[in-house]
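User: Sequence in, structure out. Go.
Assistant: Echoing your sequence, followed by the structure tokens.
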Amino acid sequence: MPRVALAVDIGATKVALALVDPNFVVQQKEEILIGDSSSSVLWDRIEKSASAMVAGLNGNLIGVGIGSAGPIDLVQGSISPVNIAVWREFRVVEKFRELSGNQNVVLHGDAMALACAVAWAAAVMLVRRVARPVERVLAAARSIPRARISPVR
């Protein structure tokens, strides 16, 4: 498997996990319904799915990106999503560092994570739209025979 990031979306009704490659292609995904889980049961279900996803990556995990509803404490790396009553000051960054063995774990609010994803996707589309025509122009330029210039006598 190529190098991937573990993307985590903590929503109101479910937690979505995905392994995403550098080209933003989802390689694998899982969804865990929140339901009426207790704090430990919910984390156990997330941990089981996420651990299975990152097992065997053999150093190919770039990091973990977490988007969550708030309130969020970025300094503590904790979340208290209004719709998940069992999670108050839940130290989600620490939990994913332990689970993944990777210190590169980033937490953002869900709106900020969405805005960042949209910006990256737009940038990738722009680069692809510009790069292809430029490649064609360069290929055409390479096919033009070079003129021989004779020294003036």
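User: And one key feature?
Assistant: The beta strands are 4-10, 14-20, 26-33, 61-68, 72-73, 78-79, 105-109.
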